[in-house]
Amino acid sequence: MALHQVTDDFIAYTKEIGARLELDETTTFLVIAATLLDLKAARLLPAGEVHDEEDLALLEVRDLLFARLLQYRAFKHVALMFAELEAAALRSYPRAVSLEDRYSDLLPEVMLGVDAGKFAEIAAAAFTPRPVPTVGIDHIHAPKVSVPEQAHRIIALLEQRGIGEWATFAELVAECTDGLQIVGRFLALLELFRAKAVAFEQPEPLGVLQVSWTGDRPTSEHLATADAEE
To answer: For a surface tag, which of 21, 35, 105, 120 has the fewest beta carbons within 10 Å of its beta carbon?
Structure first.
């Protein structure tokens, strides 16, 4: 879009709305119009060096105005596009009648995307009776885990390693088959620690727990009391 066209349009618009604007608004429009005229005149003159600070400030205003002009050109281009779309839409009219009787009972062709064999498999799967849903109760009758038995098993595992030899907790529960046994073995480990039959070592918080046998064996009465408490 040519600069002279933008300048002429802006000055014409300023003259048109000049009577309806306040003094401050009119001043702003006049400053922009003056800048546009200055830019238009600069296009007609050869380029030269600028030494005046006021001229430098004017160049900054010019750069800002150029950015505004690019926005103006973009909005004007979009407005023209909308005008073309609106003009094309005015030539379109909605259908104001109902569907003809000869088309009302028509149905689109069924497109399954499968052959007869695959369709038979789908039908067989759809008509196959589904099993009746049941609620499992196996967890209610879980076998009881004895803490003393788990304690004796821990002592047996540590005794194989020897006094003062370390084993991780993961190694001590590696043979457990369910979570309840792991819990029972952990409780047994606490009872053995309380009876000073084992020693713990954990270099850092939440680190690997090391367990070793001290050589002592807890009494059956102590383990039986612990089992009764649990």
So the answer is: 105
